[in-house]
Specification:
Length: 120
């Protein structure tokens, strides 16, 4: 459980930043160098290296250095654990909202019945 939780924390922390999500979207289309990514996101090389490092630690990105160029591509992680965690919570909230809808419907029916009784 602790390993699972740590992995979720690392992944969601990596995904919490708009630039890192943008990098993932960009890499979904094609591999890119750190320089290309830095230019695309109007950042310094150092700043982009930090973002890529966070994504790499989460397993979302891999890098390969050939000469002076470090190329980034999507990692092998497919986010199944994260999707399962989200789905479990989505189902939990769905059940809770359904129960709330039923309660509201019940209270509205009771309110209408009480209003009709008062009119008689």
């Amino acid at each position: 459980m602790v390993h699972y939780q740590t992995r979720l924390d690392t992944t969601f922390a990596a995904l919490s930043d708009v630039t890192r999500r943008g990098v993932l979207e960009q890499l979904g289309s094609s591999d890119a160098s750190i320089t290309d990514l830095a230019q695309r996101f109007h950042m310094t090389l150092t700043g982009m290296k930090k973002h890529v490092s966070v994504l790499e630690q989460a397993g979302l990105v891999t890098t390969e250095k050939v000469g002076r160029v470090r190329t980034c591509k999507l990692g092998l992680r497919r986010l199944e654990e994260e999707a399962a965690w989200i789905e479990g919570h989505r189902q939990l909230w769905s059940v809770r909202f359904d129960a709330l809808d039923e309660l509201i419907d019940h209270l509205k029916s009771k309110e209408r019945a009480d209003a009709q009784r008062k009119r008689r």
